[in-house]
Amino acid sequence: MTSSNLNWDAIVIGGGHNGLVAAATLAKSGRKVLLLEAGNEVGGAARTEEFAPGFRVSSVAHLLNRLHPDVVKTLELERHGLKIERGDFVPSVALSKDGPLVLHGAYGEALTGASPSEQSAWRDLRAQLLRYAGVLKPFLSRRPPDLAGMSLAEMTGLGQTALALKKLGKEDMRDFLRILLMNVYDLLDEQLSDDRLKGLLAFDATLGSHLGPRSPTSLLGLYYRLAGEIGGLAGAQIQPKGGMGAVVAAIRSAAEKAGVSIRQASPVANVIVETGRVVGVLTQDGEALRAKSVVSAINPATTILDLVGPREVDTGFMRKVKNIRMKGDAAKLHLALDRPPQFAGVDDAGHEGRLVIAPSPDHVERAFNPSKYGAFSPEPVMEITLPSLADPSLAPSGACVLSAVVQYAPYALREGWAAGKPRFLEAIMAQLEAYAPGIGATVRHAELLTPADLEARYRMPGGHWHHGELQADQMLMSRPVSGWSGYDTPLEGLFLAGAGSHPGGGISGAPGLNAARRIIAMRA
Amino acid sequence: MNRHVKINSARTLAQAHFRTLRLGTPFQPRIDALALTNDWYNWAGYRAPHSLWDEELEYFAIRSQAALFDISPMTKYRIEGPDAEAYLDRVTLRDVTRLKPGRVHYTAWCDDEGFVLDDGTLFRLSPTRFRLCSQERHLPWLLDSAIGYEVSVEEETEAVAGLALQGPTSFAILRHAGFAGVERLKIFDLAEFAHDGAAVTISRTGFTGDLGYELFVPADNALSLWDRLMAAGELRGIRAIGYTALNGARLEAGLIVANADFTTAEHAIRADRLRMPDEIGLGFMIDPDKGHFNGRRAIFEARAKKKLRHVLVGLEIEGNIPAEHAIVYCKKSREVGLVSAAMWSPMAKRNVAIASLQRPYGDTVVDDLWVEIYAMRELQYQKLMKRAKVVPRPFIKLDRRTANPPADF
Q1: Do A305 and B148 touch (CB under 8 A)?
Q2: Rounded distance, CA A269 to CA B319, Å?
Q3: pLDDT tens for residues B72-131?
Q4: Does A40 touch chain B (CB under 8 A)?
Q5: Residues on chain B touching A315 (C-beta within 8 angstroms)
Q6: Is the C-alpha dihedral spanning A45, A49, A51, A56 positive or negative?
Q7: How many whole angstroms separate alpha carbon A509 and alpha carbon A16?
Q8: pLDDT, tens digit, 9 for 90 and up, residues A241-266
Q9: Which of A504, B2, B3, B114 is geometrically suited to a Cys-Cys bond with A462, CB 3.0 to 4.6 A?
């Protein structure tokens, strides 16, 4: 049997976690689904890969903090090996020359290392941020409001948001609206005084964006982070055992159980369009595969510009797609270390957590500044994990894996990444050395993935892990482009299901789930 | 590769027309010498004459002799490359694959929402080379549309001079000017002829509904072309004319003018001023069997969901007072539209107009329509309520326009 003779209900392009979630959800609804992955294995940017002999690491995303509960439930991921327990929550440690400060539990349920007055201020601010993020949270699992024609269900959804706002009370509602588009720097200055805490929050708000803490709307990034939850708790984070690849393995298992056919090493050459309707795909091997729906869980620009091409879409739409801003500004560092590093003043639990070098909001802002002009941060900010401490299978005995997301590393580095990469690695190592003295001497192998590397290796244009900047103008009904935010496209039968669609990136599965739900609702 | 190509300064340089407030055309020395009325207007940034000596006599030059009208200000794009046909097929409404080399067609183009950006004429100069002429400038739109096509799009408005030679003796003038073979041109044909060491493209096209030709020549050879035509036309009644005369002729021919009879999509500020092709009488250009083109999805959706809200019609109005910009009523009371162009037609001997009406008026409801004309009579309006009848366009049909061979004089 050659599958070209088969007619699929849906073909999903891209086996990243969103593609797998979309495929599994569609298959569970009784559809016959084929998933095509270009690479040799599924998982996209959520893989566990060996980067040095005996050393394995979550290759892009390394912390699980927003896998959507609807995804876990719909795909019964716990039955497929995903285990999330409260005991797995790891703390965030704000490193500083003045000694570390630690947020315990779900995003700082308890704060240690700060003064009593700061602890009290943090309690208030944390509660407020979670309340406000909670208002926005329902949007994550819905289509963005369709301004052209809203269904009753969508109206009801918006109504519930209005109600949630109202329930905040008058003062809180006013404050919600006041700070919604604020920059995180000014908000932190209003309420906190400890630079270490402020630096950590400023870092989290801007992580993965081309924004500094003082850039307008930078607070939205923090809301996005806090609207995520894991294990039922907003703001919590875990380091999955076996790395992020283990999470994908659970989703893949659910997809296969639901009957999804998965083909790896099957890059798609183009989407087949017949009189304005997408009817299938042509693989790079020249095989034509036909389906009722094609769901692209890869980058939206790649989908439209490369796989569909300009001949089948309107100029204005092409213009919008081309204008999606997606120049990554974050790099990923993997170190194979002879032994676990010792970060000054950090206890064992802290070392198993998330270690953040962002000693003050000014420091984050200064790190951001050069990236505006095409230079990397001379004193970069970063979040570090040591995944092999909790999961020794990731490194040879006694050795250690360090995984870090490092900012700022502009995609379009003026000097070019060929020349800039070794110099940037030097700058990163200098920072690490300052907080974990002696670490440099233990490095057996270093792998630095600049946005240019991420682009080439993970097929992420611009090396942007959200597949499009996650800023106010590229959120909700403007994601991926205005007018086409509801997972459908101007081409009948073609849907977008990746991080480039609402709500955005991170290991959430929400775009994939929402897209699948949209397709199911349309055909119901 | 990331595809964030920033708009470069080359685009700005290619659109330098706005740096001079009022450009002259390559024919300006000749026109200035003939401009007795000094009645100028602004045509797309150029100084162009409303009239040169007498607008009525200029009109009759079109219908009884030959009129020479400077069309250089018309926006012109040179579109060339192996994908030029596919590119234009995607950008414009009509099926470009059916436009043979050496032919011209009237077409229009739309944005994603199916609203008309402009109308114009497309000249197929060779299998891979086209000239697109239009009212408005469209370079950014045309360049953005070219993404993914092997095609070059160049603004050539200033580099290429254009003349319309229209009227019963126009063929005779070209023949006597020595353009051998011009008699072979049928309506909407084009061909290249030698002139002054350069090439002039002559097409049997025009904006008058009359026998006529349009000539395109490099700007450097413009004046010698003018002189050549004027010399050959001396005994055949050739006259240079301004826009008022042409505007009358085009109205008789039932032709519409962008931003006079409809508002182009990029100029419209008010959402209800946007028009789909079906709403301005251009629905005939849409071919359901043609592949994708800009606006296709929206246009067919509007048709299917009956979302078309306007219709453009020809009106015949009782009396002889032009109803320019008059409001159209149903049953003398309900306001249903507006006249965009009107005249007493000397050829049709009828009081004619082009009007935009709100459907179903003008579409399925065509009875009991009226126009209210405000005729200014010595500082006092005389309000006239005149009966209007929807009639087909064109208002006149001249056999000589398409006659083969055209008449010699």
Answers
A1: yes
A2: 66
A3: 999 999 999 999 999 999 999 999 999 999 999 999 999 999 999 999 999 999 999 999
A4: no
A5: 91, 111-112, 141, 144-145, 294
A6: positive
A7: 9
A8: 999 999 999 999 999 999 999 999 99
A9: B2
Q: Which residue has the tokens 């590397």?
A: A453
Residue numbers in A near B5 (CB within 8 A): 322
Residue B60, CA atoms < 13 Å, CB-side half-sphere = 5
Chain B contacts of A412, Cβ < 8 Å? 2
Provide φ and ψ at B387, rounded to 5°.
-70, 140
Chain segment A269-282, per-residue pLDDT in tens: 999 999 889 999 99
Closest alpha carbon to B155 in B165, B174, B141, B176: B141
What is the domain count for chain A? 2
Both A262 and A203 in one domain: the answer is no
**Is A282 exposed, middle or buried (CB count within 10 Å of its CB: 0-12, 13-18, 19+)?**
middle
Long-range contacts at A83-86 (CB < 8 A, ≥ 24 apart): A83/A241, A84/A230, A84/A231, A84/A238, A85/A231, A86/A231, A86/A233
Structure tokens at A275: 């009189």
Q: For residues B51 and B210, give the distance between their C-alpha atoms in angstroms, rounded to a whole number.
A: 20
Question: Domain B309-392 adopts which CATH fold?
Answer: Elongation Factor Tu (Ef-tu); domain 3 (2.40.30)
B9-74+158-252 CATH pick, 3.90.930.12, 3.40.50.720, 3.40.50.620, 3.30.1360.120: 3.30.1360.120
Q: What is the least distance, in Å, from the CA of A299 to any CA of chain B? A: 11
The CATH code of the domain that includes A276 is 3.50.50.60
**What is the spatial distance between Cα A256 and Cα A2, in angstroms, rounded to a whole number?**
19
Q: How far apart are the first and last CA of chain A?
A: 30
Q: Which residue, chain included where needed, has tokens 């099926």? A: B95
State how far residue A36 is from chain B, nearest Cα, in angstroms.
22
Residues 6+ apart with CB under 8 A from A42: A15, A16, A19, A20, A35, A248, A252, A262, A264
Cα R_g (chain A), whole angstroms: 22
Q: pTM here?
A: 0.92
CB-CB under 8 Å, A455 with B4: no
Q: Does B112 touch chain A (CB under 8 A)?
A: yes
CB atoms within 10 A of CB A180: 15
Determine the structural domain holding residue A213 and report its residue range. Answer: 120-228
Q: State the smallest CA–CA distance between residue A320 and chain B in angstroms.
A: 11
